[in-house]
User: Fold Sacsin/Nov domain-containing protein from Pocillopora damicornis.
Amino acid sequence: MKRSSALSRPASASTSSTRTVLDPMESSIEAFGQYEKITTRLKRLLDQYTDGFAVLKELVQNADDAGATEVRFLYDERANNDAMTHLLDEGMKECQGPALWVYNDAEFTEKDFENIEKLSGATKEHHTEKIGKFGLGFNAVYNLTDVPMFLSRNYFVVFDPHMSHLGRHIKNPAKPGVKIDLNKNPEALRARYRGQFKPFDGIFGCDLRLSKRDNSFRGTLFRFPLRTSEQAQRSEIKQLDYNDHEMRKLLQMFLEGAESLLLFSQNILRVGIYNLPRTSPPGASLLLFQVTKSLSSVGIPRELSSSVTLPTTAGKLSKEEKRLLQESNFLQVASRFMVDLRNGRDDVSNSPQSSVTIEIDCNVTNKGVDFFGGGLPCGHEKTTWLVVSSMGRGEAMSFIMDHNDTTLVPSAGVAVQLISRGLDGYVPSPVVKNIDGVEVNGSVFCYLPLPIHSGLPVHINGAFAVAADRRNLERKVEDDKSCHGVNWNKVLMEDSVCSAYLTLLDDLKSLVTHGDSYQFHLLWPKSSTVQHNCRSLMKSFYKSVANRGFSLFSDGRQWVDINKIVFLDPKFREASEIGHAAFEVLQLHYRSARNTVVIDLPSDILMSFEESNQERTTNKKKYSEVAFYRQCFFSHMLRIPVNVRDLLMLHALDNGRDFDSLIKAHACIPVSPSGKTLKCPSQLVNPRKEVAALFSSNEGKFPFGNEASYLSPQRLTKLEGLGMCSDDLPWSEVAERAESIQRLNMTDPNAALERVKELLRFMERKIKRERMEMKMAPSSKRREYSLQAGIYQRLLQAKFLPVLKKPENFPLPWKGDALQGKQQVLLSPKEVFLQDKKYLVCCSEPLVGISLPRNVEKCLKLDTKDASLSHVTQQIQCAMSTNVNLLNVTKYQEVTRICHEAYKYLNKTVGINGDECMKFLHGKNFILVERRFLSAREVAFELTADCAPYLYRLPQQLTDTFPEMMEAAGVKEVFDEKDYISSLQKIKSQFEETKLDEQTLQVSVNLTLQLSEVMNVSEMNPSQVQKETVFLPDSKGVMRAVSDLCIRNCPWIGDEPDVHYVNDRIPWPTCQLVGVKTRREEALQSHAIGLPCGQTEKLANRLRRILTEYPCEKEILKELVQNADDAQ
Assistant:
């Protein structure tokens, strides 16, 4: 309402003053036109400047443009409840609480005051020595506040775009804010508005008590009251409650990006983050974090030749800091050079360059660690950077001149971190940053870092045309006819940035030492990672390297240009060991060459050359794989070290037909016994076929090596195709070779074992081959194959198979060990079993000790040899004779596996040969349960209580897997009363009159409960049970006969020494069911007349008679109380 009345007053006045002179027709005309509220405009601007690191960067950028050398951020948590009166307006109360303060040491000029009033408009557009657009950047602060205010010199400014906080002080709705001159009527200001100024007192030396004639502040101090939840609900700019969590998150983001913040800054040397806790006085702010920029001891490789006008704030700096500002203000020098160039006072060839090494010191204080939480290391973290600036070679300057654009300056820079190696100098470190778990490369800077990743291993900087939100470089879209900013960025990348990039690489040569610590291509752009916005830079880079003679290639000893290099095709070079060996040979080939250097060029660098259209140049310098073998390898084989020669030769054998003619024409295959002699393939025979049985290795006919080299099946096949002799063996020879193994074993067991392996491999291949040949052969010739079946008897009787040795953790007797002596034992296929029968026969039969191919197993009839019942029973017998309690876990698992395999066999056999199986199992403790072998009488399929070690429930695995065998062996479904009585008797026999231990006592109780359940189900009378003596634990844990026990149900009857009460863990109904007398019965029994009779009584009659012993009325209640008391 205030706004509408304020707006209506001038309109009313105007209308009344002109009404008398208006034409009558004018009454039909009313004011009408487009307009936009300030808050709406700000809201749209914030869509470009989202909350985050960018907000604080804008403030740093503005300070840098203003010539500030220091910026401080202070998170003030004070509520300032003592400053809620004497305000500019009541609406300012909600702006007196927590705030973000931003200080810089530069002062606002009159022009600055004019510019900051403008919402947008490129106020620095023609000031090419400045980067920020003040009006746009400053408005980013509305992300966190609705009422920004600041102090500079003697002026105090408050903005109130909502016009809801300053009230009557807003004179013009088009300018919703106030600017107060603190030196005019300071006494009146102090008297009326001292509460408004009080939060400023003591902040970074500020004094707004207005007690002096000059109340000016040296510098600029912004105060941004954090938007409260109430303000957020009403705000037309942004509905974000900027609470403590948001503020801490903002400062955390700033801290994480601080390392690179000042790399390309012109004036700012120091940025700090402070905190003022809620209850602290204004002068007690705490330093949390500080990043500083200083000259590194490495020095200044390229000093700026032009002088720089330093800002007034530099007056307090040291000589070294001023020198750093001199080198950092490259933008100022570039801007002045462009003016001189336009006026003809200078030439492109004199364009300035700069190269300086700086040190960035990030310091987290102890208070900072507490504030930001764990994970941050306390103390200083220093990094050294090489920063190079350039204006290029003239293309960017020509662009400016051609377009007559005075707003552009071709200034660019590149930065890379340097890692000290002590006396060995420095090595650069490619820029890699982890963002949300993804590693990204360098960033794009517009003097401060932009949230744009270049994909380069360096940071790049330039006066780029940036999108309005400063989060992207300008981009051309499909509907645009042209885009001046995009064209500018392209030429700036191709010229100025590229020039700085190449200069940086050149300067690094003097900073790093020769050797492996620095690969010349480490910092080169790679097409696989470079982002689209920097592709033009990459292409310009490789074009320059390929054509302009930059000496940026190195073999670790010298730097040369592209005209003096050769390299292996990276596809070949990067092939693991092969590439390394080929590179070594190429170096050997060019060792004596004066003007040629062998360099190691990675595939991604070559790809980058090619994608930059420079493949014609690189192809001249590249050795393909075939060219390398023809020109460098085969013609110099005798000069090449043996290990390198063999590696490359094997590669040639393995890789297609490109090298076949070269291999055939050269003596290039090493032969046994030493491999020193080289022969052509036509002079060789295959050691895996015919020659293996006919020749020894010392005759120089076999390729020298092993299956990893020349004797691999693939390479032997390859050599066969190139002329190596090969043939087959008839089955009679195969049988003879099998018989020869036993003889060889007498002199050389290891050689005999190797021959076994070779023979089995040969047999496998032969069987497969002959099967295929038989299928393809005409019927008239198939008889030739069938006749070979008669040779099998010799094979089956030949002793050529080694015996498997007893495994280390096998606990039972091992038949194979019984046959072993000092000499390795070989047996015939008729005498051994396969290893998969181990758990059924190993105690009584030897196992073959080598892996056989499936078709060889079948040929030797081993696949049909099965265990017999005799084998299995012998296995179980050996297992039962083992003391399983003494075995470790591994050995016990082996016994368990033997038993389960035997059970499996018996489970299948019981239906076929049940009588013989049961004859063996009857009465034997063959069931392995909990490290005990039990008989069928000791286990049942169902048991609900723990009765071990007297009775057991058959494990579920055995129940599910072997039910037929267990049932046939006599395992019951459940135990009967005799089993439980017998178990109780065993306990009595074991302990006699001694007290039971706790575990056994609980087992005796469980047995008694199980007995009562059985009796309940079968409706047995106690008299039926007493045919055998039943023992139960008494109250002292001693086993006693049921007849000697009674139930404690009459506490008023005194205890007697010879009266034993049943254990309290056994419920009364259970006790009565198994025949335990009550205490009353025990007492009356001593007065009874007559003798026991053999008659029985039904349970119902028994209960009826018990009731007759209890008087009615109160005795019943007593018994119930007694029972409850006993039950606790």
Observations:
- The first strand starts at residue 70 and ends at 76.
- The mean pLDDT is 85.
